[in-house]
Amino acid sequence: MLENYYWLGELFEKQQDYKKALAYFKKYEELERVILAEKQLAEINQLEGDFLFEKSEKKRIIELNQKSEKNLVLQKKRTENAIFIALSIIFFITALFVFFQYQTKRKSNLKLLKLNEELERKVENRTTSHLEAKQKAEENRANITAIIEGTNNTIWAFNRNYEILYINHTMKEDFLKTFGVLLEPGMNLVKSLPEILQPTWKPRYDRVLANEQFTVEDAVPTEEGTVYIQVSFNPIIKNGEVIGGSCFGSDITKRKLSELQLIEAKQKAEESEEKLKLIANSFVDGMIYQVAMLDEDKRKFNYISDTVTRLYGCTPEQAMKDPDLVYGKLHPDDVGDLIRKEKEALKKMSVFRTECRVINPDGSIRWSYYVSQPRVINGVVCWDGIEVDISNQKKIENELKKAKDTSESIAGKLKAALRSMSDAVFISDIDGNFINFNDAFVSFHRFKNREECVKTLKEYPLFLDVYHTNEEFVPIEMWVVSKALRGESGSNKEYILKRKDTGERWFGSYNFSPIRNNEGEIVGSVVTARDITELKRVEQQLIKAKEKAEESDRLKSAFLANMSHEIRAPMNGILGFTNLLQQRDLSGENQQKYIDIIQKSGDRMLNTVNDIIDISRIEAGLESYTVSEVNVNEQLNYYYSFFKPEAEKKGVKLQLNNNIEEVSVIKTDMDKFNSVLTNLIKNAIKYTDKGIIEFGYKIKTEEDKTELVFYVLDTGIGIPEFRQQAVFDRFVQADIEDKQAKQGSGLGLAITKAYVEMMGGKIWLESEEGKGSTFYFSIDYNLVNKKRPVYKSDNKLPKNDGDLSGKLNILVVEDDEISLDFISIVIKDYARKIQSVVSGIDAISECKKNPDIDLILMDIQLPGMNGYETTKEIRKFNKDVIIIAQTAYAMAGDKEKALKAGCNDYISKPINQTELEILFKKYSKKI
């Protein structure tokens, strides 16, 4: 009985109903079949739901199985009953039953096999489709990723916490380049931005998270210039909820620049159009137009001025809509000639000029003059032109033609007279047409030749503007020709004229009067004009000079009072203590004290005189700027050594900040540079009683300009804020009460400021009262292309290894006896022989007699031949002798003049013993 039902397990196994097959196999204890069925069942459970039987097919198979089971049960009952009925038919029934089971099983198996094959085919097809779809999706994803990463546009996405979900390579690079931050997924977008940009970008991200889609444009400053970007913001939605946002940025710089250029061009075009309309509508007896040639016979006005209404009786709009309203008014007899001339001009693309009769709106005839220029616009020929009503001119021409025979001789004489006149002369008729003018008229109005001259008054506003001398515009009806034609006369009336095409301006002085006939009627005008531009320029200079003189005069009293004090005070010291020196019982200590006071008073007076001379030259514009090579470091070292004893004498420490590594040879005015630096250091010493004084310089570079900025710092009394500007003003100091001011002319900083400005720089200060001041001045870093080594030393004056005492043969050329005595005393320790002469001729003679002279002190102001000329003559036969120029003038340019004449160096009077000794030591090696 068990064997009869074992085949059901095989049947369900073939039907792939492994669950039922497993049950039968377990029931009949078929171990291998059980293991195989469990394995198949496990594999089926791993398949996706898409590969299960269709419901209709599954249902049909179940019904089939149920029907089979019912049949089997029925057959079982029939078999059992048949056993009891008869043994005789048992074999027959059994055979029939076996046969029937075989047939049924065979049919069922065939159907199940067929269904199984169909199911396997469908599963295979669906599996293949699923794998192909998955592979295609992966390929699409890879392609999209490659496109996003390869684009030049910036792409990024973020979640609701502003954290980066995705960012492409372009966005990373641009953000790093612009803000110096490398973005990565997970970073906070808002916090990664500079704080200044966060208030702008966070609201944008919030708008996206609020489910808003929008686009913005930004201007981003970069090292290469401003870059314009456009960013599109889009929300990311999942299950109806915004979970983040995506952004797409693109560079729109080229488009934006084009838009800006287009806007600018449009504005300029609109401005030009407005100007054109203003000019055109002020054109009383004519009109301006632009007409396009659509074909050989068809025309269309692109523009026509408002005066078309008076000339043709139609509005500009009507004329542009129907050109025949204008062209139809041309006199039929003149149309052919007009067309012929137009074709000739078009062939050469040259200016078209013609005269033509036109029928007025009232039926009368007028003459018009046409000037037009062709040009191609967008492939269409357009004529830009003007039409002028010349009826009056034609009328005059006819009248003149009648009187031609009788007026030729008069006209010839008049032309000859006009040609000989230097003033511009022009004669007009009653309508303002210039019937005669001379060549001076052509040049006066800045025309190139007579042919270029405009022949009627009405045309002049097209190229000429006229103003009163106070710059008030003069309309054409108030021009001198218009006034004369109204019967007015005038002389020496001054106006400003301006050419509209070139912008040139000039001044003209006019005389004008009407021309009357025998009946006293006005028939024209005569005008003469003279160019007084140069005269007005000189006049303006005189006015400025007068104003400058008045301003100087305003402060003259205060200035003179201050100068009187600065001269009288030291003079009082000199004379007073000189008298005290004559006392017989004067001790040696007091004698030295009085001498020191006299020396200081003399220095003070000399400084005052020098300041007066310098400021006078500056005010008069006589101060010159002479460029030479200056070794900045050498000069600073010199001034450190020169002023160090004076500073230490007051108990003040002098410090030098010198950039010895830099190339310090520049081109500037050495005398002015030295004067500026000397004055600032001297002021610092004067106003500092304790602490330090430091001076030096630094190199400052801004954009493409490099400057040397010098400074002098002190810990002195400082300058109140309200006085800081006034210290640089000329003469103003003398008129302002200054309780802190010490002795001096008060002109030093004014001179210093002028010198700095002449060197192309500027001067300024920083100061706090009671704490000290720092003065700065800048000059251009005009570097000389060579290096001169500068070495750090003990900042002392250069010394000569040899002793010069009593070794020099010196010639003093001096015509002042006191100066000669002083010089002889000063130099006696250096001289083995001192010779002196009082003139240039004697100096030349002495040099020829004594070729062994080592050094010459040459006074410049000599009687007869001056020191410059004398030096030049000596240099002709003696190239080696050292010549030092000396002068009491000490003007800027004297040193250069002396060096050019052949002098080795220069010293100003009164001669300072220390300076002279420095010069002796300087040239000792050459002697």
Explained architecture:
It is flat and about 185 Å long. The protein has 7 domains: 2-128, no CATH class; 151-251, Beta-Lactamase (2-Layer Sandwich); 283-346 and 357-389, PAS domain (Beta-Lactamase); 395-539, Beta-Lactamase; 555-612, Orthogonal Bundle (Helix Hairpins), CATH 1.10.287.130; 624-780, Heat Shock Protein 90 (2-Layer Sandwich); 808-926, Response regulator (Rossmann fold). It is α+β, with helices and mostly antiparallel strands and 927 residues long. The chain starts with a helix and ends in a 5-residue tail after the last helix. Strands 12-11-16-15-14-13 form a 6-stranded antiparallel sheet. Strands 2-1-5-4-3 form a 5-stranded antiparallel sheet. Strands 7-6-10-9-8 form a 5-stranded antiparallel sheet, with helices on both faces. The model is unreliable at 48-58, 734-741 and 786-802 (pLDDT under 50).
Topology-level CATH name of the largest domain: Heat Shock Protein 90
On the 0 to 100 scale, the average pLDDT is 79
The main β sheet shows up as:
6 strands, antiparallel
Query: What is the count of DSSP helices, taking H or I runs of 4+ residues?
Result: 28
Adjacency order of strands in the biggest sheet: 12-11-16-15-14-13
Ends distance: 151 Å
Number of domains: 7
Helix content: 40-55%
User: Low-confidence runs (pLDDT<50, min 5 residues)?
Assistant: 48-58, 734-741, 786-802
Sheet-strand content, in percent, reads 15-25%
The CATH architecture of the largest domain comes to 2-Layer Sandwich
